[in-house]
Amino acid sequence: MQAPAAAERNKDPILAVLREYAGPGPGVLRVLEVGSGAGLHAAHFAQALPHTRWQPSDIDPQALRSIAAYAKAMRVPNVLPPILLDVSRSWQTWGDTQPASLDLLVSINMMHIAELRCTEGLFKGAGVLLKPGGVLFTYG
Fold first, then answer.
1. pTM for the full model?
2. Long-range contacts: 47-53, Cβ < 8 Å, 24+?
3. Whether the Cβ atoms of residue 42 and residue 7 lie closer than 8 Å to each other
4. InterPro entries, per this entry (predicted)?
5. 119 and 105 Cβ atoms separated by less than 8 Å
6. How far apart are CA 128 and CA 100, in angstroms?
7. How confident is the model at residue 105 (pLDDT cuts 50, 70, 90)?
8. Percentage, residues of the chain above pLDDT 90
């Protein structure tokens, strides 16, 4: 359950911007985080935004275990069990996420390290899975 030092440093500045898009409103906001890594951000953001239903994901099975450990250690009930997700594959393989069902799709520090097909997949998936007015939030 270790996160890169950069994740620790940038979690609050990112949260400040996320609050603009995930502020309190009517109902629960559905969020899918693509490439959750160690899970620090997922647990931190979900804890600060209790009106969200946060779905973390990663392509690395070791990361999935770390994400689950962070959510458990921080006692964050609105973090769903992490799912294995390869963003380069079709959105139909992204768990049970249905078209136009997400309020927010979050991707932090993925695009600059992943292959171009991953970024293309992220944008294609966002076009299908976000609700009208939903936001694709990227960082890094």
1. 0.94
2. 47/74, 47/76, 48/15, 48/19, 49/18, 49/19, 49/22, 49/78, 50/78, 51/22, 51/24, 51/25, 51/27, 52/22, 52/28, 52/78, 52/104, 53/28, 53/29, 53/78, 53/80
3. no
4. DUF938 (IPR010342), SAM-dependent_MTases_sf (IPR029063)
5. no
6. 6
7. very high
8. 78
**54-73: burial string, b at 16+ Cβ within 10 Å, e else:** bbbbbbeeebbebbbebbee
Structure tokens at 39: 């899970």
Q: How far apart are CA 133 and CA 130, in angstroms?
A: 8
Q: d(Cα 121, Cα 127) in Å, to the nearest integer?
A: 10
State how far the Cα of 84 lies from the Cα of 81, in Å rounded to an integer: 10
Where do the domains of the chain lie, and which CATH numbers do they carry?
5-18+27-138 (3.40.50.150)
Q: What is the length of the chain? A: 140
| Residue 25 binned pLDDT confidence (cut-offs 50, 70, 90) | low
